[in-house]
Design goal:
Length: 662
């Protein structure tokens, strides 16, 4: 602390002395020991102020293992790679040996996703398991603990190096780096796999695979797709230069299990290299003889299909094929993946409609094709967004002409089969809808939500649902729902919940795959990362998740509180293939159940992370000036001020009670 800081501290201490003197001379009852009590209280305030100003205490030096030096060890998965070509030791084993030499019997700071303190003599029993390599949190922790020098043992695969370079001078740390990654380690990796989530049995199915290589022997490798021990497709591909990715496309004809279902495939690189764990990747595909799912056709494309298609796909667990009409009989495929943006004929659209479990028509009006208007009258499960006057569409509900103006959703939830799923919709943050169409009430008609003009007067349904003669139909009665999703936050969650709940009601009891109300975000999850789960459209207090390995051994059996809307997280699992069972509860009532396969891959992005120059991060004038500015150990990192503060306060109040003061 400089001279100005000490001056400010002295002024604050004088003010504290004046306040304490006034209290004991003017406000307290006269009696014995007032000067001693005042001195004790002022001393406590002086120590507290000293902690707030936090001066540095002089240190005796920066010897390794001393109070001013901390040893930081990289605990990410890349440390499992060989230390150098031909060396039987891993980078972790090399780092452990060096850390124990530097730290002796002291503790070291292991960094990865989050820093953690481990005794140096216990490092050999630990295993690097972090799927990330973030150095800055560990440097900040070392600085806050009073360190003025750090020794970093790493392979250089640090992902937050720019942040470290920017902030390190302000931490006042001198940095030494020991690189435990040698040269000559050859490694090829499957960096990415892009595959559609569904396929039709017997039809060509394409997978795109991205390959990376570092110091790899040879100039090419064989990539194959396997199902179990059977090779379905293979291709010889040239290996890329370091830091680049080579993409290869593989195609095969999948076979469907009885009744359709999820099938696990593996992409593999043939041959051996330094890291076998990143040579095999898994992916899951829903394969059926008749890949039905959802067919979405927009006759007047706007923002609505853009937001609606992923919501239906994620919430229902069904493949969604989207089509946008460009001209009278020409369509463009929508969504993500290699098919997005490709042209489609009217025959292909009609064939998708005929196969679908759920039909979605957006912008259906008088100008729609005759086959679309006829489908709207006969489809077993259909969601319709009308365009203009919907009186002549033959829908099972009678809609009046659109009423212009802004219509705001009501906070009062009508009674309906999906009311429990919409109970927490934040109506006050939802943007207004437009052109709402009044509905003539009828038998079996219900509404999920209502809206009113300017939040006044009686509400009108923003959508209606009806079930008659085995048919289920939902009709959107307004325009502009996409504004909810476009705003983000709670409004987007409300959009997801509305259409996920209505879509779930439409396909209920249609197909077993539609029951996947709770499932992992990634069925093939990266190693070392927490498992993320999604439960779209559900309003639940908790979710019970049980995960079992292939041999039936329970790996996870826990109850997770719902967080972040529709998403929850469980701890990372060891690599392997699993099956999960999930149950969602609202109070004591079970509201959803799901099960399915899950894989935790042996692959991690850490294996292919490039090395960065960590050496010299604190170099230069800024780093040297920071070291001169912070020469000692911060007062707040030592225990004695806190002990002294407790002793002073306790003594004062004990004496006050003995001498009759309150």
């Amino acid at each position: 602390m400089d001279l100005l800081g000490w001056g400010l501290y002295a002024a604050a201490a004088v003010v504290a002395l004046a306040i304490v003197g006034y209290l004991y001379s003017r406000r307290e009852t006269p009696g014995r020991g007032r000067r001693l009590l005042a001195a004790l209280r002022w001393s406590a305030l002086a120590v507290l102020l000293l902690l707030l100003f936090d001066p540095e205490l002089p240190t005796t030096g920066l010897a390794a293992g001393g109070g001013g030096t901390r040893v930081l060890v990289d605990g990410s998965l890349s440390m499992l790679m060989p230390a150098r070509a031909g060396d039987s030791r891993t980078r972790w084993e090399a780092a452990v040996a060096e850390a124990r030499r530097l730290a002796g019997r002291g503790a070291v700071l292991v960094f990865g996703a989050e820093p953690r303190v481990i005794a140096a003599d216990s490092l050999a029993e630990a295993t690097p398991a972090a799927g990330a390599s973030r150095l800055f949190p560990a440097l900040r922790a070392a600085s806050e603990a009073g360190a003025r020098r750090v020794v970093i043992l790493t392979d250089g695969g640090v992902e937050d190096a720019p942040e470290v370079h920017r902030v390190l001078p302000s931490l006042g740390l001198e940095v030494d780096v020991v690189d435990v990654a040698g040269e000559g380690v050859a490694n090829r990796a499957i960096a990415e796999v892009e595959a559609p989530g569904w396929a039709e049995a017997g039809k060509s199915y394409g997978v795109e695979v991205g390959i990376t290589a570092v110091g790899a022997a040879g100039d090419s490798a064989t990539v194959s797709v396997r199902q179990g021990d059977e090779v379905l497709a293979s291709e010889r591909v040239a290996l890329p230069a370091a830091g680049r990715v080579t993409t290869v496309a593989l195609s095969f004809e999948p076979s469907a299990p009885d009744g359709g279902g999820l099938v696990r495939y593996e992409v593999a690189l043939e041959g051996d290299d330094a890291v076998a764990d990143d040579d095999v990747r898994s992916f899951y595909v829903y394969v059926d003889e008749k890949p039905a799912g959802v067919a979405l056709v927009s006759f007047r494309p706007d923002w609505e299909p853009r937001f609606l298609q992923p919501v239906l796909e994620q919430s229902l667990g069904l493949p969604v094929r989207g089509f946008l009409r460009a001209q009278a009989d020409r369509y463009i495929r929508s969504g993500v993946g290699e098919e997005a943006g490709r042209p489609a004929t009217e025959a292909e659209v009609r064939r998708a409609i005929g196969q679908a479990d759920l039909v979605v028509f957006h912008g259906l009006g008088a100008d729609a094709p005759a086959w679309a208007r006829e489908t709207a009258k006969t489809a077993k499960r259909i969601l319709v967004f009308p365009a203009g006057d919907a009186a002549g569409l033959g829908l099972p509900v009678s809609l009046a002409s659109p009423s212009p103006g802004e219509w705001y959703a009501s906070a009062e939830i009508p009674a309906s089969p999906v009311a429990s799923l919409l109970a927490s919709v934040p109506a006050d943050v939802l943007p207004p809808l437009s052109d709402l169409r009044p509905v003539a009430s009828g038998a079996g008609v219900w509404a999920p939500l209502e809206a009113s003009r300017g939040r006044r007067g009686a509400g009108l349904p923003i959508a209606v649902a009806v079930e008659r003669e085995g048919r289920r139909t939902v009709v959107a009665t307004a325009d502009g729902y996409w504004r909810w999703a476009f705003r983000g936050g709670e409004a987007r969650q409300a959009y997801r919940r509305l259409w996920a709940s209505l879509g779930g009601w439409l396909v209920e009891d249609q197909r077993s795959v539609a029951s996947g109300a709770i499932r992992p975000v990634e069925r093939a999850a990266p190693r070392g990362e927490p498992l993320r789960w999604v439960a779209p459209g559900l309003e639940a207090d908790s979710v019970a998740i049980r995960i079992a390995a292939e041999d039936g051994t329970a790996a996870v059996d826990t109850v997770v509180a719902r967080v972040r809307g529709d998403t929850l997280v469980t701890e990372p699992l060891a690599p392997g293939h699993y099956r999960y069972e999930a149950r969602a509860f609202a109070g004591d009532k079970e509201v959803a159940r799901a099960d399915g396969p899950l894989t935790v891959e042996r692959y991690s992005p850490e294996f292919a992370r490039p090395s960065v120059a960590v050496t010299g991060m604190a170099g230069g004038a800024a780093g040297a000036e920071a070291l001169r500015r912070l020469p000692g150990t911060p007062l707040h990192t030592t225990p004695w001020p806190y002990l002294l503060l407790v002793l002073l306060v306790s003594t004062e109040w004990t004496l006050r009670r003995r001498w009759g003061l309150r």
